[in-house]
Specification:
By secondary structure, the protein is α/β, with parallel strands linked by helices. The chain has nine helices and twelve strands. Keywords: DNA-binding, Transcription, Transcription regulation. It holds the Pfam family HTH_1.
Length: 295
């Protein structure tokens, strides 16, 4: 069994598609398929269930992937430790987040104070951020809801209130708070299902005794525009609306009395991770300053 076989398997497991995995690895699909077949023969077990053009990890594959991820994670730890001993540690940090707004204010401040550190940042679903943490593909995950687990450490950086956001012409716009059931018949604007926050808002409405009357599903960058066009109301974390640097807003935030929902913003990393100096500086800065500097 060779590391190259394991890397091919890891990428195939991530993409769930041999064609995409072969493209990412810059090899031919037949070569990838043959490598995976040889690996399965050596293990005496199939690792994937074939579903048309796609593949899906079976129980054996999922168990094997957890160990393979650990192998590559420990190799990366070893590389970082040797680099530290020899004074050649990288000053680059990889970070994935469920919403780039979660970095507003604080990332700029961090980079101003650490000019020699480079950040590689991507935005993805919470599920994919968790997978990237488990595989060691990224150093840190910044997510809502916060990501934790047996092999993942999470530090809660901020607890944020979810509010009802309405246009200033709305019948309840002059109120400070509201019982959510009072707007059960209103048109709702929501994030689409690619956002984890969508399930949270659906659950909040269900706990208030109704299914939201959803008229528009949009991406995060458009939801404020739709609200200002008076196309409906929305449930949103305060940080998406309470942004004074963007100028005067024509939207009103109402505290939800019943239920009183909140979400947690968390920074996560692998439990056994060996931190470079740059990664230590990043982790310490975010955990100590997030609540103060997050804009």
């Amino acid at each position: 069994m060779e590391l190259l076989q394991l890397k091919y398997f890891q990428i195939a497991a991530k993409t769930q598609n041999f064609s995409r995995a072969a493209e990412e690895l810059n090899i031919s699909q037949p070569s990838l398929s043959m490598t995976i077949s040889h690996l399965e023969d050596e293990l005496g077990a199939k690792l994937f269930d074939r579903k048309g053009r796609n593949i899906e990890l079976n129980e054996s594959g999922a168990a094997f992937l957890a160990r393979v991820n650990r192998i590559f994670f420990e190799l990366e730890n070893a590389k970082n430790e040797v680099s530290e001993i020899n004074g050649t540690q990288s000053r680059r940090i990889s970070l994935a987040t469920t919403n780039p707004q979660l970095l507003s204010g604080i990332l700029k401040k961090f980079l101003l104070e650490h000019k020699d550190i480079m950040i590689t940042q991507r935005c993805d679903t919470r599920e994919n951020v968790e997978k990237q943490l488990q595989s060691g593909e990224i150093d840190f995950g910044l997510a809502v809801p916060a990501i934790s687990g047996d092999d993942i450490i999470c530090r809660i950086l901020k607890e944020e209130e979810i509010v009802l956001v309405v246009p200033e012409s709305h019948r309840y716009a002059d109120q400070k708070s509201i019982d959510l059931y009072k707007v059960a018949e209103d048109a709702f604007i929501t994030l689409d299902h690619s956002y984890n926050f969508r399930k949270i808002t659906d659950d909040i409405c269900q706990s208030a005794g109704f299914t939201p009357n959803i008229k528009f599903e949009v991406g995060g960058s458009l939801i404020k525009d739709m609200l200002e066009l008076n196309r409906g109301i929305a449930l949103l974390p305060k940080y998406m609306i309470e942004r004074p640097h963007e100028g005067k807003s024509h939207l009103k935030m109402l505290k939800i009395v019943s239920p009183n929902p909140k979400i947690q913003i968390g920074l996560s990393w692998q439990k056994q991770k060996y931190f470079s100096n740059a990664e230590k500086q990043f982790k310490d800065f975010f955990t100590e300053n997030y609540n103060r500097l997050f804009a």
